[in-house]
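Teaching note: in complex prediction, the entire set of molecules is handled at once rather than each chain in isolation. The prompt given to students was simply: 'Predict the structure of this complex.' The entities are:
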Amino acid sequence: MSDLLLSEQITGLIKNAWNVQVKAVTGYFNKYDTDFYYQEVAAGRNRAVYLLGHLTAANDSLLPMLGLGERLHPELESLFLGTPDKQLPDTELPSFEELKSYWEDVTSALTNHFSNFSTPQWLERHTRVSAEDFALDPKRNKLNVLLGRITHMTYHMGQLNLLKQAAIVAD
Amino acid sequence: MSDLLLSEQITGLIKNAWNVQVKAVTGYFNKYDTDFYYQEVAAGRNRAVYLLGHLTAANDSLLPMLGLGERLHPELESLFLGTPDKQLPDTELPSFEELKSYWEDVTSALTNHFSNFSTPQWLERHTRVSAEDFALDPKRNKLNVLLGRITHMTYHMGQLNLLKQAAIVAD
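The expected output is the structure of the full assembly:
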């Protein structure tokens, strides 16, 4: 099998992991009543609704980092990346329903873009690294940024699942 | 562009993600006093020490799944994959220090094996899927199993970091 075909198979695995994690987050936020998501994942820590905003803002930043355009919801950055949970009154934050629709916007846009990416494109430098720094560390490419966002989703899913009612082994 | 084949560059990114997550778990379990790890990550949920056993057992299962040999610590499977936390007295479980040394054994063995894996080997079927099922879904390969174990570590790191004293945005 050619190197290009092998590479496409592997980028396919990573895109599949993206799809699986996006689906897990989407499913989680469509499963319970709204009140459920205003609980803290652990005493004194972030609420689920905040983590939805946080994950949406973090994924939205992939658009500029991968050279795909501007953020769809730039207003989320200061609220969910720059400000901890519970520092602002909920009236200054988007509602849970708004956040769910932003999550859908952002992840659909990204998933569409990913279907057209070629393997050499994935291995290009991302837009926040200079050509000089990229030459020193070619791992700083677009695919590595995507891998980081996948693990970022699973990191917070581990926290979100602490809220689930049914106890499951090591969940 | 690096002289490495595209496919090798990409498997390199995934191996790097493995190394980064293993290092994060190792660092976490070497940072605090032993008592710290006997706390639950959230009220009524798993203790950190249990999650160390759980992550060790899950990673140990990669050895047979990737065709690399038998588990190094098969005794962990029933304790940390088949039994929820706090069902057995701590006297029947390995100590925290023993678990840390098992974690080192398992992850070092795996990391050594990974350095010798070729890309075509990564794309072979893993040992728990039949040739027939693999033909239907070639994603069920060894590299995909590794990706799953990487996200498994980040999932539980999200929980473990809830125990950290200092509050950090969306941690």
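Point out the following to students. The CA atoms of residues 9 and 142 of chain B lie 17 Å apart. Residues 6-28 of chain B form the longest helix (23 residues).
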